[in-house]
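Entry 12.
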Amino acid sequence: MNKVMLIGNVGADPQVKYLDQGVCVAQVRLATTERGYTLQNGTQVPDRTEWHTCIFWRKQAEVVEKFVRKGDRLYVEGKLQSRDWTDRQGISRKTVEIMVDNMEMLSPKPSGQGSSATSSPQLSPQQETPAAVSPSENNDVYPF
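Predicted 3D structure (tokens):
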């Protein structure tokens, strides 16, 4: 089983692109932090932050484009996917990304934005994930 669940903070505004035929794809960098602690002998272990690249497709990406901003807290579920590419200097690179299936916004919205803070957009787009366009198959199709 390939399943990832994360709760973290958005590190920068989402990068959003529209592909052929209007397919929207968004990339979000999400920071998760394990809190530090003190051992019995007094040794302090500091906080540890990990950065994750999360990829959203279609309607979910459009929601991300409209509502997600730097500093927001998100819950995401998805699967890990690795991808290889060659950078501009001709060096082979590899990355691991989270292909998001489900997202929930955890940050309360400012009071001036209409609906109540408890109603956050939730999407579980099993039908919204790209079937015909796989980022690992063709890097020309994958804009990030």
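Annotation: Confidence is low (pLDDT under 50) at residues 114-120, 123-141. The chain has one domain: 4-35+46-128.
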